[in-house]
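Quick start: read one record
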Amino acid sequence: MALPVTKCRLSSNIYVMTYSNVDARLPPIRALIFDMDGLLINSEDIIHEAANTLLEKYGRPLLTQSMRAKLMGVAGSTNSDMFHNWAQLPIPREQFRRELGEQMRHRFPDCEPLTGAETLLSNLCQGRNISTGARIELALASNTKSTSYELKVSRPETKRLLGYFQPERRVLGDDPRLGEGRTKPAPDIYLVALESLNSSLDLGLKPIQPNECLILEDSVAGVEAGRRAGMRVIWVPHPILAAEYESKHKDILAGRSGIFNIGDDWQLGEVDDGWAESIPSLWHFDYGKYDIHAPL
């Protein structure tokens, strides 16, 4: 049965397709691509604590739930006009950026795995697709830069967690294959992660296509990046994020939050198109729903 293609384009020798028919059969999942910050490790909470330390130092109000939600998962968000117009700090923006960087360099080595992360990755590493018997492939796609990544995996338990991803399948925010300013919500990082998967597949295996990939993300920007890449998405939002955008959950799952404006709206999904879902934590990952057999 042919899938009803509604949109497609060629990117890095991979067709990116979107299917609008909610009843259309989707191919078996062959790969899962994970975000890191706020999904696998508690670095988002650490960034929040570091920002609040400086806001308090300079006599400014602490981050509100709404502002914290706007900052989550967006590269350079604490250096944005949005944040500084709200914060009204009595110091130059560059000074705040420098001091926040120092705070985070001091705190990132304290990063810890989030609940359910190691169990899920361990199970998936041993998992196979029930329909095809094929091994499940894993990759990492994170906006974090290499120097911050190394600090975040300082603890043995965090290093062990990220060790589930082969080094050549970890794509970070300063990867030279990414275009300038093309971090999430642009799809580039997920398409590069897919290229990394395909370049390291066992000989004889067909290249993985975007609609055979499942993205796990905690941020709104990350969900949109995944949808723009033509991939299926599971959103695992921080409770603050889930509460702040409660009325927009369906739009977010379609990649249509309206928060970002990067053009190419044809890349986005449709509300209730069956390509995305939200779960409260990684413990709630439904292996059976994605036809994955794993030792539980």
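The two ends are 33 Å apart (CA to CA).
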